[in-house]
Amino acid sequence: MSGRKSFLVRLPEELLEELNRWARDDLRSLNGQIEYLLREAVRKRRGVTLPDSAPPEGPVKPA
Q1: Is residue 39 a part of any domain in this protein?
Q2: Residue range of the domain that includes 30
Q3: Of 8, 21, 26, 27, which has the fewest CB atoms closer than 10 Å, so is most exposed?
């Protein structure tokens, strides 16, 4: 996975549960949902469109 970095994030349990529900509603993985939300926040803050380097969002197959 070149060009992508991993890092640990600590979230309150309630927030993590809500993000998981939201991700399922949007048919995304939790990681995909967090990345989507961060990209949207940065785009809105800067007023620009960021290139979407992530694979297209769609239903996530269960592991």
Answers
A1: yes
A2: 13-46
A3: 8
Residue 6 located in a structural domain: no
- Look at residue 40 and tell me whether its pLDDT is greater than 90: yes
Question: Over the stretch 2-34, which tens digit does the pLDDT of each residue have?
Answer: 688 999 999 999 999 999 999 999 999 999 999
36 burial type by CB count under 10 A (0-12 exposed, 13-18 middle, 19+ buried): middle
Asked whether residue 8 is domain-assigned, the answer is: no
Element (H, E) at 40: helix 30-46
User: How many domains, the chain?
Assistant: 1
Is 39 in contact with 50 (CB distance < 8 Å)? yes
Determine how many CB atoms are found less than 10 A away from the CB of residue 26. Answer: 13
